């Protein structure tokens, strides 16, 4: 049978609603998707038995808050039970929660399509290390699933559907859900503090509490019916002496588009604006998670403009990198071997920030699994990879976590604002200003607007912009890139003078596949990997790049541009040129 799923290490996704409408809120998945769900559960059951060597492994299963999640879970739970797997079902849970809790079991199955529209759904798999399967292992599961889809007969499908008819939905186990939340809260304290021992954690959280008592802080959260409404936020954040004002916080009641990009952060901004108008001047930070609650982008109160403003995804990541690297020096002034792992299209501002703070930057192909595995590789080589993630998509991953987490993101900023200068040493922002050569911009009563003003200036295409998504005809994306190379080299040669007027004198090709980045390869055919053309000034310094890659989770071809400085005209020009060359290469 046809599966019609996009299969990648970061997750399997498709439209799961029976009406095949990606924007549908229907709960019905139809017979074909019931069969696929059973084959998914059966495939992972066989895999986890083989890797653990156990006759009956324990697997945690949960869903985000999409309407189709419960029915997919019902079928997968049955498939696991029929394959002698012991399933532990949590019902609604955020991705960081299930991945933290999975450390107590043999693995997990998470039913989610992350930031995709409400009619989509998908699957993430992992073992007990708290992250999704690495590329090689994910490939084994994918090949096994494809084989099952190809071999199942019509009679077997009919028998399976008949069997599934009489199986009731399974309710979430309250005991396990309670344990899951407890496990997650314990883990997030380790993540935020960077300390494993509770006594050391307490020192840092006491500093945060002290600062928030002196300068009250209220966080505003538009949960948009996401899994965060069933997570730790409402308990954990107030326990740190930070007020939380949440809305749209009933899990499953998704009231607007899911992706936490500026067009959807307006609801959080409007709420913050109204609170400020009502005299709640402590409402300074806000966040909106996606449906599975692993990614959250930020809104802040800009006291200079007296407006609540969304922070672009690339800047959110940049602020978190600045905060967490500075935090390493705050804990240990002689910190060394610092590194950051990012995806290929993460803005070059990260390279500038990391360089100022004595850290190296390593790049992987797009896909959270690729970045997580790259960070693991670099830690094994002796690097201290405190923070990593897909800067192009917002949010961040903070070690020892292996998944993005909006609580980690928001607390990176909380630490930046609360861990200030004392008689014992300099605060995080002061450390950053000094190491980046901007100590003249530091002042004791700084705000987040002051912090943002010290970020290296770059102009970057937003991942959710219409112009960042192309439809291409060629199925062979490697061949498309070969054609692009031919057309690009001719284009650059023909317009050399025009490029030079923009400060661009040369270029270098960078390819990413999995955790590997190759610079300067003559062969641009790297199949479905990422391709970046980095532009240099006359001194050989990088000043811009264009990037492309077929999406691993959606049937589209993604493009973007990053330009040093506030230069919207050049960003638009380079992206337009990239699009024109790609269209010609696609003929």
Describe the structure.
The strands form four sheets. Strands 16, 17, 18, 19, 20, 21 and 22 form a seven-stranded antiparallel beta sheet that branches. Helix 10 runs parallel beside helix 11 and helix 10 crosses helix 13. The protein is α/β, with parallel strands linked by helices. It has 18 helices and 22 strands. Helix content is 41%, strand content 21%.
Brief overview, please?
41% of the residues lie in helices and 21% in strands. With 587 residues, the protein is α/β, with parallel strands linked by helices.
Secondary structure tally: strands = 22
Q: What is the overall silhouette?
A: globular
Largest sheet: 7 strands, antiparallel
- Which blocks of ≥5 consecutive residues have pLDDT under 50? none
What's the helix count? 18
Provide the structure class: alpha/beta
Strand content: 15-25%
Looking at how many chains there are and whether they match, the oligomeric state comes to single chain
Tell me roughly what share of residues is in helical segments. Answer: 40-55%
Return the average pLDDT rounded to an integer.
95
Radius of gyration: 24 Å
Query: End-to-end span in angstroms?
Result: 32 Å
């Amino acid at each position: 049978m046809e599966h019609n799923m996009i299969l990648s290490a970061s997750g399997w996704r498709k439209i799961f609603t029976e009406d095949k409408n990606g924007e549908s809120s229907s709960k019905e998945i139809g017979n074909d998707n019931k069969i696929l769900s059973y084959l998914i559960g059966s495939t992972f059951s066989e895999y986890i038995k083989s890797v653990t060597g156990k006759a009956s492994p324990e697997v945690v299963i949960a869903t985000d808050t999409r309407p189709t999640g419960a029915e997919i879970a019902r079928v997968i739970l049955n498939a696991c039970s029929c394959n002698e797997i012991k399933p532990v079902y949590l019902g609604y849970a955020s991705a960081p929660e299930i991945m933290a809790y999975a450390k107590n079991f043999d693995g997990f199955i998470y039913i989610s399509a992350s930031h995709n529209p409400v009619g989509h759904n998908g699957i993430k798999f992992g073992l007990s290390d708290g992250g999704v399967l690495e590329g090689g292992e994910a490939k084994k599961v994918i090949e096994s699933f494809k084989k099952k889809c190809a071999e199942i007969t019509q009679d077997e499908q009919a028998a399976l559907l008949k069997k599934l008819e009489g199986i009731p939905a399974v309710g979430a186990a309250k005991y396990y859900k309670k344990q899951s939340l407890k496990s997650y809260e314990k883990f997030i304290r380790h993540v935020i503090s960077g300390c494993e021992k509770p006594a050391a954690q307490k020192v840092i959280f006491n500093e945060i509490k002290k600062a928030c008592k002196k300068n009250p802080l209220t966080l505003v959260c538009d949960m948009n019916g996401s899994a965060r409404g069933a997570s730790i936020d409402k308990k954990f954040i107030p326990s740190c002496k930070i007020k939380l004002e949440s809305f749209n916080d009933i899990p499953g009641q998704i009231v607007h588009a899911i992706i936490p990009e500026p067009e959807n952060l307006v609801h959080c901004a409007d709420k913050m604006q109204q609170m400020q108008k009502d005299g709640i001047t402590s409402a300074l930070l806000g966040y909106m998670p996606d449906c599975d609650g692993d990614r959250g982008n930020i809104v802040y109160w800009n006291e200079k403009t007296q407006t609540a403003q969304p922070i672009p995804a690339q800047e959110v990541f940049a602020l978190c990198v600045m905060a967490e690297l500075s935090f390493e020096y705050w804990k240990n002034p002689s910190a060394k071997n610092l590194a950051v792992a990012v995806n290929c299209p993460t803005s070059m501002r990260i390279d500038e920030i990391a360089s100022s703070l004595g850290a190296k930057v390593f790049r992987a192909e797009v896909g959270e699994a690729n970045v997580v595995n790259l960070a693991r590789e670099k830690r094994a080589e002796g690097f201290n990879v405190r923070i990593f993630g897909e800067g192009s998509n917002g949010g961040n991953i903070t070690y020892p976590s292996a998944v993005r987490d909006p609580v980690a993101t928001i607390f990176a900023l909380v630490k930046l604002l609360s861990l200030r200068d004392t008689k014992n040493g300099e605060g995080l922002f002061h450390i950053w200003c000094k190491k980046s050569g901007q100590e003249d911009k530091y002042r004791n009563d700084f705000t987040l607007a002051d912090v943002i003003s010290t970020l290296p200036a770059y102009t970057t295409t937003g991942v959710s912009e219409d112009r960042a998504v192309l439809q291409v005809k060629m199925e062979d994306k490697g061949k498309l890139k070969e054609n692009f190379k031919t057309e690009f080299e001719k284009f650059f040669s023909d317009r050399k003078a025009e490029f030079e007027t923009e400060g661009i004198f040369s270029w270098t090709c960078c390819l990413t596949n999995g955790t590997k980045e190759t610079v300067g390869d003559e062969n641009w055919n790297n199949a479905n990997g990422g391709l970046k053309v980095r532009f240099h000034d006359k001194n050989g310094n990088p000043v811009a790049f264009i990037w492309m890659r077929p999406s691993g989770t959606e049937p589209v071809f993604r493009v973007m541009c990053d330009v040093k400085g506030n230069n919207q005209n050049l960003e638009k020009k380079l992206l337009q040129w990239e699009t024109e060359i790609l269209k010609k290469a696609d003929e």
